[in-house]
Target: CRAL/TRIO domain
Amino acid sequence: MMAVRPLSKELQAKAIAELNENPERIPEDIEYIKEWLRKQPHLNARMDDQLILSYLRGCKFSLEKTKTKLDALYTLKGLLPEFFSNRDPFRKEIQGILKLGLNLPLPKTTAPDAPRIMLQRTLRDPSLYKIEDVATVSLMISEIMVLEDDQYIVGGLVLFNDLTNASIGLMSLMTPSLAKKSMTFYEEAYPVRPKEMHFFNIPSFFDTLMNIIKPFMKEKMQRRMRFHHTNRIEQMYEYFPKSILPAEYGGDAGPIQDLIDYWKKKVEDYAPWFKEDYKYVSNESRRIGKPKTATDLFGMEGSFRKLNVD
Model:
């Protein structure tokens, strides 16, 4: 028996119209991907039906794209230990970042089939935490959403980046190496369709920061970016209506602390899952053909410490 959630009627209609979904064929497609994963000697892959279905939907039910993306998921998890090897929600640094609420999916959407909106905020004091730990928490929340949030997978994602707290110290943390790793993971190994990225209250140094990141972004992604040189939140209501925003943004959706508390507990509840997830990576020494290395994917072998997988 397949363990997948039924979609709401609005999301189901969208999945059929935009993602090539054929509800009757889903069990067959999931089984095909499972069978392929079992045959890959280098992969120790999760066999969760819901996770595989999220990747099928993210790849518009192209079986070849789904295989490529899942292969990239386990390969990159093995090559990026700085993001994936220490995902204990109760680790002091992760607790501190969760309490700041830097990545907050908003519970309400603008329509039943609309994208999930993610509020992203910046560290007020970048010296407090390592940027790799900030990225780790962002990825932890994103992975929970891939497993749980059909709105995110079918409707897509809109980012609302609030740069109010951004300081010049952020510049020294965002290295080309980190930008390359982050963008490679999100673009090559992730099943979510980003629709738009809005940047609000942009600081003067932001152009320099974007010049570091943009070379590693696909053109399609760059075209979806919207820059708002204003600190007047009411000018954002055209894109993010008050009905879905927290009270701190003049919205009607309750205090931001409620969202922070919800996501902190949610990530903590996933502690056993994250602990177990560490074993689901690629063992490149067993790959048929040429093993994939950090040099192949990032062009900077020396800056990586690889995972040794038995």
Observations:
- Strands lie at 103-105, 116-121, 157-162, 194-200, 225-228.
- Residues 301-310 have pLDDT under 50 and may be disordered.
- Residues 48 and 204 are 45 Å apart (CA to CA).
